[in-house]
């Protein structure tokens, strides 16, 4: 095995040494359960037919139906989707959600498609994977470059195929289609709750703490805004086109509003003189990662901090809001430099936690307020963060290894409780 999944699996190997889970269970966790690859024909607005490549992977469903987002991005590949499904498996176990791990994706740049083309593509994706998903089988959600609108189309298409309204097959839907209050901001808010639990342990005072955030989407923009509101000095943010920096701290709310209107943040200082963001300079994404800040928050894509640039990282704390932003080789270098890394499967788990709440609300038909949702999510995130912290202290391991140990113990128990299912291996069920 090589590639992203192989790299992700090295974390599993490391943590396995600290658990007593059976060999059978650990072997099962090293392989994705099922991986589907589909071709999606889409009629484009100019009349031509284009075939897109899509994927859905259910990595493990021992603890419940598969759960995980769908990504639309040019770099989507089977290896990436399998890795993302692997992380979902450990994330759901870590948060003690009754779900396994899954993920999906389509290889494309969605910014190049019209709204109508995107809708045909999203509905076509569901046509192609309909037999593979379901409210009790595998439940979808948003990820990079997908949103509420796309989740709504997907839920509607699945309902058409099933000939019954099936809100529980997708989370992150519009509120009018059974979405949950708070799902739109859940990932950034959950990360904020954990950061607020961790940083006081190091006696960091918000007003004296500088923060840089890479990625200014559904997750990054929310955590940046919440930290800024609490007094942290968010000195740099970026999107796919580059970043902006000021040592005095940015006005995150204005930047969010600006991005909504202009779809980018880097034009602020070069083209728009009306916008009152204050003085700041242009930086690249590479420069942002290497800024001399207290806290670095990668909130875009995987493989951003690697063996090549990790020696240049100056932040003291890294909170992984993105999935897989640090390679395993970089982990060791950062560790030697004394940089504390707080792992993706804990930090960004607010999203799937509120997705679980959405699924519960869809099944019960009783809907909660935003405050109820956020309070329940906060409680879950803080409880598990404290447990991971305690394991890290007890076993003298990194927070990443501690998070995997915690998740592995739950996964191992569930796998062992199901038994060996030897009849598969021996051929005939009796
Ligand atoms: N949404 C969710 O609920 C969850 C998301 N995550 C993870 O968080 C990360 C971000 O997801 P999300 O916020 O939903 O995605 P979005 O699509 O909402 O936002 C992605 C952001 O990343 C920026 N970006 C894209 N490519 C690059 C790049 N090469 N360098 C720097 N910035 C880049 C985009 O820029 P631009 O705006 O210019 O395109 C955009 O600001 C992903 O790793 C995702 O898997 C994890 C858990 C849940
Ligand atoms: O909300 C969900 O179900 C999954 C979100 C997701 O894809 C992730 O946590 O990476």
TrEMBL record:
<keyword id="KW-0520">NAD</keyword>
<comment type="similarity">
    <text>Belongs to the Glu/Leu/Phe/Val dehydrogenases family.</text>
</comment>
<dbReference type="InterPro" id="IPR006096">
    <property type="entry name" value="Glu/Leu/Phe/Val/Trp_DH_C"/>
</dbReference>
<dbReference type="GO" id="GO:0000166">
    <property type="term" value="F:nucleotide binding"/>
</dbReference>
<feature type="active site" description="Proton donor">
    <location>
        <position position="103"/>
    </location>
</feature>
<dbReference type="InterPro" id="IPR033922">
    <property type="entry name" value="NAD_bind_Glu_DH"/>
</dbReference>
<feature type="binding site">
    <location>
        <position position="67"/>
    </location>
    <ligand>
        <name>substrate</name>
    </ligand>
</feature>
<dbReference type="Pfam" id="PF02812">
    <property type="entry name" value="ELFV_dehydrog_N"/>
</dbReference>
<dbReference type="GO" id="GO:0004352">
    <property type="term" value="F:glutamate dehydrogenase (NAD+) activity"/>
</dbReference>
<keyword id="KW-0560">Oxidoreductase</keyword>
<protein>
    <recommendedName>
        <fullName>Glutamate dehydrogenase</fullName>
    </recommendedName>
</protein>
<feature type="binding site">
    <location>
        <position position="355"/>
    </location>
    <ligand>
        <name>substrate</name>
    </ligand>
</feature>
<feature type="binding site">
    <location>
        <position position="91"/>
    </location>
    <ligand>
        <name>substrate</name>
    </ligand>
</feature>
<feature type="site" description="Important for catalysis">
    <location>
        <position position="143"/>
    </location>
</feature>
<keyword id="KW-0547">Nucleotide-binding</keyword>
<feature type="binding site">
    <location>
        <position position="187"/>
    </location>
    <ligand>
        <name>NAD(+)</name>
    </ligand>
</feature>
<dbReference type="InterPro" id="IPR046346">
    <property type="entry name" value="Aminoacid_DH-like_N_sf"/>
</dbReference>
<dbReference type="GO" id="GO:0006538">
    <property type="term" value="P:L-glutamate catabolic process"/>
</dbReference>
<dbReference type="InterPro" id="IPR006097">
    <property type="entry name" value="Glu/Leu/Phe/Val/Trp_DH_dimer"/>
</dbReference>
<dbReference type="InterPro" id="IPR033524">
    <property type="entry name" value="Glu/Leu/Phe/Val_DH_AS"/>
</dbReference>
<feature type="domain" description="Glutamate/phenylalanine/leucine/valine/L-tryptophan dehydrogenase C-terminal">
    <location>
        <begin position="180"/>
        <end position="419"/>
    </location>
</feature>
<dbReference type="Pfam" id="PF00208">
    <property type="entry name" value="ELFV_dehydrog"/>
</dbReference>
<dbReference type="InterPro" id="IPR006095">
    <property type="entry name" value="Glu/Leu/Phe/Val/Trp_DH"/>
</dbReference>
<dbReference type="InterPro" id="IPR036291">
    <property type="entry name" value="NAD(P)-bd_dom_sf"/>
</dbReference>
<dbReference type="InterPro" id="IPR014362">
    <property type="entry name" value="Glu_DH"/>
</dbReference>
